[in-house]
Design a protein that fits this description.
Layout: E1 11-12, E2 15-16, H1 19-23, H2 33-36, H3 39-46, H4 51-58, H5 62-69, H6 72-82, H7 87-95, H8 100-118, H9 141-159
Subcellular location: Cytoplasm
Subunit structure: Part of the SCF (SKP1-CUL1-F-box) E3 ubiquitin-protein ligase complex SCF(FBXO9) composed of CUL1, SKP1, RBX1 and FBXO9. Interacts with TTI1 and TELO2; when TTI1 and TELO2 are phosphorylated by CK2.
Keywords: Cytoplasm, Ubl conjugation pathway
Length: about 160
Amino acid sequence: MKKTSKNSNAKVPGMELNSEDAEGGRKENQSNFVDLLPLEVTFNIFSQLDIPSLCSASRTCTSWNHAIRNNDSLWKPHCLSIRAVCQREVDDDIENGYTWRVILLRNYQKSKVKNEWLSGRYSNIRSPVSLPEKAMCPMDADTWGEILDAELGREVEKLQ
């Protein structure tokens, strides 16, 4: 049995993926490609979208939202790409039985922030006041340990 998020209307910051957005206030187009094309073709079209575009498409109408939200194979490639930065976090979520969509929602922002930290983007900042707001997000001790190890590695390289 797969776990779902406690908040079924979870959000990726700056992008929303919930059924209320698709159902509220937007007129349904009775003849859109999701309703007309075979599912394989529809999913092939949606699989070409990046994460922000996929989230935007899910807000277009109820049928698009349903097709995107309920097709876990659309989310898997995006999860595997963020796994390059958040391997431990994604692997733990897979082991805990989360769906690919939920794994992405749980780790997307963290992967962006963690990648900036690991790449040294904030190495020369000497005061927390100088950090941009987006540079912070909830991360566990192991993640901060990885960031600290990367920072210490950069400092050692400078000294050599």
